[in-house]
Amino acid sequence: IIHVVYVLRPSGLFQKAISEVSTKFSKNEYRCRSVICSALNDLQAIHDTEFLNSVEATQKLLDDQGTDYERLKDEILAAAKNGEILLNNIKSSDEIKEFSERTGNVSSIVRLLVQLEQTERRFDEFWRSHRNRLHKDIDEAAEAIIAGQKLIGSRGVYPWEIVQPKCDELQRICDISSERVKKCLEILNKNRQLIERVETANEWCTNGVELLTSQCIEKCSTSAELASDFKLPSPSEFKKLFLESTTSEIKALVSQVLQRIDDVSLMCDKPVPPQPPGGAPNLLRRNHKTGVIHELRPRSMDGIVDEGISLNGDNTCNLDSGDHIQNQQGFVALCFVQRPDTFYRLYSFHCQNIPRSKRLRDTLFDTHLFLQECQKHLGHKLPLAVYLLKPVHRTTEYQLLLKYLLRFSDSGSYTKELQKTLDCMLVVLKCINDSMNQVAITGFPTDLAQQDELLLQDSFQAWSESKRDIRLRIKPQQRHIFLYRKSRLFCKQNSKPGHNKSIYQFKNYLKMSQIGLTESVRGDNKRFEIIQIARKCEMPTIEDNSTSGSKYVALADYMAMDHSEDSMHEGDAVEFLKVGCAGWWRGIIVHLMEWPFLDIAEECRTVLGPRGYGGVQLSPVLEHVVLNTSVYSHPWWERYELLSYYIGSRSGSESDFWTMSRICNDAGVRLYADVNLNHMASLSPAYYGSVSTNGEVRSSLNRTVNITDYHYPGVPFTKSDFHKFCIINNSVHAHEVRNCQKSGHPDLNHAQHGVKEKMILMLNHFLKMGVAGFRIDAAKHVWPKDMKHIFDSLDNLNVDFNFSSGSRPFFYHDVVDMGSDSISKTEYTPIGVVTEYLYAVKLANIINAKSAPLASLINWGPAMGFLSHQYALVFVDSHDTQRGLVSELSRDRVLTHKERTKYVIANVFMLAHPFGRLKRIMSSYHYFDGDVNRGAPTVSTDDSIRGPEFDADYQCTRVSGWVCEHRWSVILNMVAFANYFNGRNLRDSSVIYFQANGPNQIAFCRGHIAFVAINNDSERIFSKKLYTSLPPGTYCDIITGGLAPNSDGCLGRHLLVDEQSYAQLQLPVASHVKFKYAHRIANLNYGVLIVYVESKLREIH
């Protein structure tokens, strides 16, 4: 049934006329309503309906249409029933009618009934199709909603932290771009105005100077009038216009104009009487002050124009030599102070060009016709070389004349201004000297300009200790050291025959991002050692030749941030430049054992970055064997059973790794991947707790891998890439340890070029993804020379993740050496830092009072058998030592979180003591002593890792399965304490005034900045008056809470320090409890007190 007809009117004029005529005649023929549309938009507007965008609205529409369908269906059935009744009545009527009429009526009714039946059938088909389509849409929408709600509610997805910040960043960039475009248009318009007025400004300044110097003016008030005559804004407006529209093309020109406007304005404020006829009187016939200014005038203010060499066209500062000298001392100071950069550029460029000009003059000779013509035209009697040397002499003459002028000035007559002028010119003189020496450097392979600013240069004695043959050069070498912001150059000072000027022959250089600095060498405070971190081939030792040692202080402190030569003094506390190839400057990392990647990202953003952790050690992330059998259920060591070099573990996918890397690096937290370069997954079925695997194992990328016969297709590695089968029977033989199988694991043959190349590709992929360095697992099983070849072939760190250009990856090697192993940990120090297992064992023995008392910590350091400070990564426990799985160690020889108090004391001491290049905090999950293979907490529904959960105090809940030692408040406070010293001069942070009160009660100071006290006695209170080295005042103990947020109260204990820096200590006995009972004690006492300058209560007057 047609209810309405829409007619689209033609657009052409002729067709439109025909359509209107035909419509008028045929309009009545339509049996339904007709609507004439002029254009397609009218038709579209009529059919625009609201789009249903919810399940509820769609369901309501379906219900309404279902009601209409039932009503229409009833009407159709009623019509059919009535038709059948009518048909039967006609057939059974007793009235006699004509046969033709009767037959026609019956035929019409039958035809209508057939049409009605067809309409009913088609209507039912349409309704079923329509209803099924709407039901399908509803079901799909409901599934999408459920999936979306599951996605939003699932763990590890961060719509606010990830999506929203990116959207905000895009919007911010869009706004900035729009604003910059608008600003560029404004700058272009102002540039046009600026260029038009430059010539006018020059003319105005020239006329102003002539007017002010040729006439005696009592009061100058015509600058605005002159400006208006030349249609020029005021100097302040002109400067504002210049600052808003400066471009590189007109900057030099406009800066000169601005300077001239300022000079003229100053002359208007302090008018200068005209110079009397006859010129300036002789210096010997005038007083000292007048003579000095007369001597300064032609040299400093008029540039070198009067001498015939036009290097600076600015001739706007004019001094008078008459009777008004007293009023011009401030003007003298102003002219110098306003132009330090101008003086430096002018004279440094001139001095640097002297060798080149001499070579030119040697080729031309002073008898050249052009030079003779210039000399005659200028009226110069002396040769050109004399005039070229005069500016060099002036650089030293300026400061002498200024000292002389300051000497004869009254105490209140511009003394401060003149002193500031003198200081300014001394700096300029030094900069010129530095630039001249810098030009004399020969043999440097790259452009010196790429090394950034030259900070300091001087002569030192240097030794070079070679790590290859461990021999020390007894005879020192005299070296001239140039310290740039990006590198340190070692040069040898020589003199060319026939020249009195020194040249500096380049010998070696070190990148500042790859070196560290020791405070002394063998107790000699005038020597310091430079440690190259990336490739420790040589370690130069530098000695100061001066008696005071000030040169050493300056050179050492110049490895500092946000300080200049003028602002630094001996003893200042400064922040070192970022040392370490990876760019980390915080010396504390945390091992988040088996954490999911996205949980690590959130921890970096909310805890690790804000609280001062420098990095995260990741559990292995490459594709590994997955064990979920009756024997093993995801043991922690399954991650070390490598199947390929693809990224994908139970912690997450490669996409999740990218997200984690970006968030952590943006938070200032570096990532250190745990990699194994020695072997692949074991081929022994018994190793996996099964004897029927047939070489097939399940991988973390959810695929089946057949590793029969040394076949690892994901790398790929084949049997030829491994050493021949042998078992490590004797760990004394290094050849056997490094070439035979470790616990049945196929041992890779690094002599094969292809093996090393595949490892380099894998490590470079990590670097591309923002990794800062690597923990090398089972490092003692790989030859150091092979490892060095791999490391030297790696790319630099990715600058897209905020690393400095040219920074190298950082490596620390897992080598267990208790001091008597055949493979020494020192073999790996030339290629990275080494894990110092002996540190953890000895610290545990001392705190447990097994081998020595607490007072023996006075000798803590290399004297205990440890590596040197710069090579040691120190820790209290690790993922394998806490389970007793290191063959050289037993479980009871180290401390773990299960002994809460002793474990805290050990970590506090580690973070309070300066020893250790890098310090690692362990973040564990719960396990039973009888089940040391247990892996990370698992979600029961899908077998994935269960992320950590936190209580109201931001600690990990016990039911979640995680311990999270790194979140303990006492450790967080100690991380901040340790970072405070990581950013300070090494001389300020050494251990001094070590004091003992019996065998198990000690105290010591960190410079004059901190005081540490530890009571490990099980019975006695630590009660004694001790020297703290701190200034007098009240200090809050950071172990029990530290300062209140407003710094006017302590959250825990406090310590009162008297005027002599002594304090009466009352430190109770520690509460030694197991970890599982620690949460039941409200105020657990650890027997430790630490205060430092940052925990001092502010004084209220």
TrEMBL record:
Q: Name one GO cellular component term.
A: cytoplasm
- Determine if Signal is one of this entry's keywords: yes
What is this enzyme's EC?
3.2.1.1
UniProt keyword annotations, A-Z: Calcium, Chloride, Disulfide bond, Guanine-nucleotide releasing factor, Metal-binding, Signal
EC category: hydrolase
Annotated PANTHER family: LD43457P, RHO GUANINE EXCHANGE FACTOR-RELATED
Per UniProt, subunit arrangement is: Monomer.
**The name this protein goes by in its record:** alpha-amylase
